[in-house]
């Protein structure tokens, strides 16, 4: 799928990976829907950078945990451009909690994390499906996490939501093909404000040091690293669907080394 003239929705794109995805798509000629729930000023800054790259933009405030809000994002994109070619489900939240203390997470905490990270992705996918099918093609990329493979993360609620998002990716790929391809990217540690806030500066510093020492790449990911993979899945991988692609600088190789020979 050539991106020139296409329409791409990126949820949670005011900052971090979402903003990097919007800018990367804009650089390739896409028209970009920038979504935010709280950070309007930063969403406008992302819009300005996309416009500098020559892209048409639409900024929409929406909490993806609301189905009405998800449908509104899609409706406004269709009203402006008449089509939707790709969806990047990047919006996410967490409740930081030591996984060894189960008392730290309530049912309400789980429900809020799932409402954004899982149900929000489903609602956005459902909202774009009819349009993409009518067009005869479309791509959905879910931004998951490598914690779904490793069992780590900022909390058990976040971990479980990303494992469920991976399962949803597989189910949607089966259900929506051949017109719509659905894949997920599963990053490790990323140098973003969101991640620093999610795990705390002290833990983030330890993770960063571990990546420098143990990852074959010798560093944590930058948002642009993840965005490159996301946009490749949208634009270049015409036969790829139902894949959960890790992008963690090879840190899982270091974990295998510590476990000894198989």
How would you portray this structure in words?
- With 262 residues, this protein is of the alpha/beta class.
- It has a single domain, classed as NAD(P)-binding Rossmann-like Domain (Rossmann fold), CATH 3.40.50.
- The chain is 52% helix and 14% strand.
- The protein is built from 10 helices and 7 strands.
- It has helices spanning 16-27, 40-52, 67-81, 107-135, 147-150, 156-176, 193-199, 201-214, 223-235, 251-259; strands spanning 7-10, 31-36, 57-61, 86-89, 138-143, 180-187, 244-247.
- Strands 3-2-1-4-5-6-7 form a 7-stranded parallel sheet, with helices on both faces.
- Helix 1 (16-27) packs parallel to helix 2 and helix 3 packs parallel to helix 4.
- The radius of gyration is 18 Å and the shape is globular.
- The model has no long low-confidence stretch (mean pLDDT 93).
Highest CATH level, the class? Alpha Beta
The side-by-side strand order for the widest beta sheet comes to 3-2-1-4-5-6-7
Number of helices: 10
Radius of gyration: 18 Å
Q: Give the averaged pLDDT, no decimals.
A: 93
Query: Structurally, how many domains make up the residues?
Result: 1
Question: What is the CATH topology assignment?
Answer: Rossmann fold
Number of strand elements: 7
The biggest sheet, with number of strands, parallel, antiparallel or mixed sense and barrel status, is: 7 strands, parallel
Percent helix among the residues?
40-55%
**Architecture (CATH level 2) name:** 3-Layer(aba) Sandwich
Which spans of ≥5 residues are poorly predicted at pLDDT below 50?
Answer: none
N-C termini distance: 41 Å
Structural class: alpha/beta
Which word captures the global form? globular
Fourth-level CATH superfamily = NAD(P)-binding Rossmann-like Domain
Question: Assembly type of the shown chains?
Answer: single chain
Strand fraction band? 5-15%
H/E order of the elements? EHEHEHEHEHHEHHHEH
């Amino acid at each position: 799928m050539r991106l020139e003239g296409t329409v791409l929705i990126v949820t949670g794109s005011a900052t971090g990976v979402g903003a990097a995805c919007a800018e990367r798509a804009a650089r390739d000629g896409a028209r970009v829907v920038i979504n935010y729930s709280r950070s309007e000023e930063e969403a406008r800054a992302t819009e300005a950078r996309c416009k500098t790259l020559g892209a048409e933009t639409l900024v929409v405030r929406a909490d993806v945990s609301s189905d009405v809000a998800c449908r509104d994002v899609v409706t406004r994109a269709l009203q402006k451009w008449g089509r939707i070619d790709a969806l990047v489900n990047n919006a996410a939240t967490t409740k930081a909690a030591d996984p060894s203390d189960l008392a730290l997470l309530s049912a309400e905490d789980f429900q809020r994390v799932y409402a954004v990270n899982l149900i929000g992705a489903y609602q956005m996918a459902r909202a774009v499906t009819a349009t993409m099918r009518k067009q005869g093609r479309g791509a959905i990329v879910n931004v998951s996490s490598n914690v779904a493979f490793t069992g780590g993360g900022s909390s058990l609620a976040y971990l479980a939501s990303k494992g469920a998002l991976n399962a949803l990716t597989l189910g949607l790929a089966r259900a929506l093909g051949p017109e719509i391809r659905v894949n997920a990217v599963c990053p490790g540690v990323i140098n973003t404000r969101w991640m620093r806030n999610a795990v705390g500066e002290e833990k983030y510093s330890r993770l960063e040091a571990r990546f420098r020492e143990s990852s074959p790449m010798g560093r944590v990911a930058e948002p642009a690293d993840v965005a490159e993979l996301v946009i490749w899945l949208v634009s270049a991988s015409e036969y790829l669907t139902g894949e959960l692609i890790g992008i963690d600088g090879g840190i899982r190789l270091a974990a295998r080394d510590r476990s000894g020979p198989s």
